[in-house]
Amino acid sequence: MLVLSRRVGEKLLIGDDIVITIIDTRGDGVRIGIDAPRSMRVNRAEVVEAVQASNLAAVSADDDAQAALIALVTQATQSGQSAQSAQAPDASTPETTPDEGPSPS
């Protein structure tokens, strides 16, 4: 890591197309300006780290959430199976048609 001392108004050049300007100093903070091409992403590290932590928390389920999801899937599967068996005709009982009277002989 390169550590430099700069005064307000002084600039740092990174490569050919990135310019960092010291705008102001206030107590324990420094305001900087960054001039970079639009194709270059410039993000604050703490924001990127917070988003990554939030994304990890969102995709990792705790034990209670996982158990609730399994219960829902099991319930939906069982409900689907009982609905299908209620609609399907019973194979052991032959289908009957209404009696249309005596058959002609």
How would you characterize this protein structure?
The protein is built from two helices and three strands, in the order βββαα. The chain is α+β, with helices and mostly antiparallel strands. The radius of gyration is 36 Å and the shape is elongated.
Q: What's the helix and strand layout?
A:
Layout (H helix, E strand, L loop, with lengths): L10 E4 L3 E9 L2 E7 L9 H15 L3 H25 L18
Antiparallel strand pairs: 1-2, 2-3
Query: Spans with pLDDT under 50 lasting ≥5 residues?
Result: none
Please compute the radius of gyration using only Cα atoms.
36 Å
Main sheet attributes: strand count, strand direction, barrel closure: 3 strands, antiparallel
The total beta strand count reads 3
Strand order of the largest sheet: 1-2-3
- What is the count of DSSP helices, taking H or I runs of 4+ residues? 2
Structural class: alpha+beta
Overall spatial form: elongated
What gap, in angstroms, lies between the N and C termini? 106 Å
The quaternary state of the protein chains shown equals single chain
Provide keyphrases for this structure.
105 residues, alpha+beta, 3-stranded antiparallel β-sheet, 3 strands
